[in-house]
Amino acid sequence: MAEKKSSPAASKKATTAKKKTTTASSKSEASKSATKKAPKGNLLDMNSAFFLRKEDNEHPQWRIIDAKGKVLGRMATEIADILRGKNKPFFTPHTDSGDYVVVINASHVVLTGNKMEDKEYAHYTGWIGGRKVTSAKELLAKHPDRIITLAVKGMLPKNILSRYLLRKLRVYAGSEHPHFAQKPEADKNA
Questions:
Q1: Going by C-beta distance under 8 Å and a sequence separation of 6 or more, which residues neighbour residue 105?
Q2: Number of domains in the chain
């Protein structure tokens, strides 16, 4: 019988297949040695150690901020930081460690540039063609508390925790507020 002659292309395929299997086995051995864990015991990896002390935020404070003459965006960042607790040494991103914030004189907040006429707040009613657009000037005249609430809401993280944080924000158009029993402290930066 006649012997089959092997073509050079077929022999190259066979050698590359052998090389691939040997390199794959060496890679798996290398990954096994790299994934060996440190011995367990009293060793602590300080990069992954996390201690949550519940007593740090058992009693959140009440802060009062006067919005009279303040720029909306700059004030909203301060409020968002206080609500999240970023101004405290034990800040943790996934916990509610912030304080309550009472904002007074919301009707006297300032917007820079032409934002009073140009900035638009839109919402959708759910009906066809139900997009409602309101300028910042109209919103400040009708509902001055909403302009601050929406600014702070935009500066909080977009997750479930932000809804709980927004419940700690109380905004009033005038200088009167009903939270005297909580003894709110004036904000140091205000």
A1: 66, 67, 68, 172, 173, 174, 175
A2: 1
